[in-house]
Design a protein that fits this description.
Helix content is 28%, strand content 29%. With 225 residues, the chain is α+β, with helices and mostly antiparallel strands. Strands 1, 2, 3, 4, 5, 6, 7 and 8 form an eight-stranded mixed β-sheet that branches. Strand 7 and strand 8 form a beta hairpin. Helix 1 packs across helix 2 and helix 1 crosses helix 6. It starts with a helix and ends in a 5-residue tail after the last helix. 35% of the residues are buried. About 13% of the residues have low confidence.
């Protein structure tokens, strides 16, 4: 997902004023890479107004579908006191399972708890938002071919609004599967919105902030020991 977002930067930066190096920061997110089933474009909400950005997003999505290596079907192993093969039965259980997902670095490993998400959960980034749990799980499943190594350390993990929101910030470091093995590192975060009646996550809003050109430079920078 991170690789795809940076690929999007490379595609867009030379041509788009909205990504000029004078802009202070941009937010890029992991959900740009996917193996969506069928043509979902008409159902998506375009958060970006730049046609080139959107075209690049969908090109990367198609690239992930064609070349991504599926590595997870969204099934996780149950812990000793929680059955991860069914939906949560309480808000406390949902919060525990979100924590477990983050402990597994689900956004990089692809080992995601399918049943904490509403089937029509909204997954959003600055470019596009879409509804559908299965599409998001496909996104994660295609990540393995593009990342050879990673490390994720939680910076902030806050439960807010009586347990109906979880806000995270993670320091991510990863190595891309490119010949020169570039290493990328910066903070990334998610806000989860939970329905207090169903105990399911209904919105998953992802973002990470970085200077646009700095992100691109990290791809072409030789790794340091």
């Amino acid at each position: 997902m991170f690789f795809a977002s940076l690929l999007l930067c490379i595609l867009v930066l030379p041509y788009s004023n909205s990504f000029a190096p004078t802009q202070s920061r941009i937010a890029l997110t992991s959900s740009a890479l996917s193996s969506s089933k069928g043509n979902n474009n008409d159902q998506d909400q375009n958060n970006s107004k730049n046609p080139l950005e959107l075209a690049s997003w969908y090109a990367v999505e198609a690239f992930g579908k064609a070349f991504g290596k599926r590595k997870s079907d969204g099934t996780t192993s149950s812990s000793s006191d929680i059955d991860l093969n069914k939906a949560p039965s309480s808000l406390d259980e949902t919060l525990k399972r979100i924590q477990l997902d983050n402990d597994r670095s689900y956004f990089l490993s692809g080992d995601v708890d399918r049943y904490i998400y509403d089937e029509q959960c909204t997954f959003a980034d600055p470019f596009v938002s879409f509804d559908g749990r299965d599409r998001f799980i496909d996104n994660l499943a295609n990540l393995g071919s593009f990342i050879t190594n990673y490390d994720a350390k939680m910076i902030n993990y806050n439960v807010e609004k009586n347990g109906e929101e979880v806000v995270t910030k993670v320091m991510v470091k990863l190595e891309l599967n490119l010949p020169w093995k570039p290493v990328l590192a910066w903070p990334w975060g998610v806000t989860y919105f939970i329905n207090p009646e169903t105990f399911l996550v209904t919105s998953h809003i992802e973002s990470w902030d970085i200077e646009a050109w700095e992100g691109v430079k990290q791809i072409f920078r030789s790794p340091t020991v």
